[in-house]
Amino acid sequence: MQRSEGDGRIQLLSWERLPAKAATGVGYAAFAVSVVLGLWAGNTGITILARAVFALAICWFGAWMAGMLVVHAVRRGAIGDVSSMESDIDHEEVHTTLIENISMESVAL
Description:
The chain is mainly α. It has one domain (2-108). Helix content is 81%, strand content 6%. It has helices at residues 18-41, 45-108; strands at 2-4, 10-12. A two-stranded antiparallel sheet has the order 1-2. Strand 1 (2-4) and strand 2 (10-12) form a beta hairpin. Helix 1 (18-41) packs across helix 2.
């Protein structure tokens, strides 16, 4: 679901569920690919099943971690939008003041 605010920004209402959805999709895909490749290679049933479950677990964990990184980046980006503009202004003011002080000291010498 998406909701548009007055300033034209789109706010995602359910982006917190991204890690679970991504992990589920990637895990099931890894399981299916493992089963198909195991059948194609002629492996025994228990070998195919064990390797497919292992692939599911590893890929699920990797996709879940990647999803958590995305959620963390989105949260930090949303929080940092307003404060980054303020910090850029403060940084420019400090840098300008420092340059003015250095030039004043060099003139006084």
